[in-house]
Amino acid sequence: MTEAPRLTTPFTARTSAAEILDGVDLTGRRMIVTGGASGIGLETTRALAGAGAEVTVATRDPRLAEPLVAEFAGDGPGSVRTAALDLNDLRSVDAFVAAWQGPVHAVVANAGIMAVPTRQVSPEGWELQLATNYLGHFALLRGLHAGLRAAGSARVVVVSSGAHLAHPFDFDDPQFERQAYDPWVAYGRSKTADVLLTVGIARRWAADGVTANGLSPGYIMTNLQRHLDDATLRAFGVLDEAGNRTEPDYFKTPAQGASTSVLLAASPLVEGVTGRYFDDNQEAEVVAGGPEATGGVARHALDPAAADRLWAYAETVLDGVRR
Predict the structure, then answer these.
(1) Is 219 a known active-site residue?
(2) Measured between alpha carbons, how far is 310 from 198 in angstroms, rounded to an integer?
(3) pTM value surpassing 0.90
């Protein structure tokens, strides 16, 4: 079987989210951005609403989105709404889904946490990074399936990370119940799970007109780094020996970091594309992965057998809580 050629676009790593949608009219499109009130989520929301979409910012604290709501409260075609959503609390996810009415044309699964220093668990007892980054989004998307199908042509965008490259999903101990917890391993595995989620959706929902793709936004300084200690920040090059914040040349602005999310959520250039992984606004090269890998997408994150196994695991975990 011949693989489809890698998809390329005229955009670059330095293209902003707004530039992706120059000339694109999203009037009448209803979209959801999780974690859309700060960081690259905020810029994703701003670009989509700026092109005419009705964007719902799903966030733990809806007050944080009030400036965005006000920004788009005028007579323009785009608008921003807000709704409470705590991805690590299944009751909150269920409440959001129950309140949603009508079609949804795109969901950008943007919210996440990174490198939580010690093992913590959600109200359901799930390891917190897996709960927030993957299981909460799985529950949300499964709950919104009818709305995605009703749109006729809908897109799911899942923000992953290059951290997935070194860490295949561990089906033997996904919650770190037996092995020693490592914050970066837990993060990397949750981000592999995010990519496998898009593969699972591509395999199941194509007949419903739903596509799904994953991405790495690149390096951007946002609130996502709040758990990192000084030694880690120095290793990333964003803290000098005197304790001053710096920003290496390879870091992006939040607007640049949001561009690949916006490309996949709304650009006509990727219409019908599904089950793939992008970075810097291009489809990523498939690589072997491992600790030495520095770019691309690991084969273990695109493995259809692993995607099916993870989907079954997530269904079992969620349905077990709801019984």
Answers:
(1) no
(2) 11
(3) yes
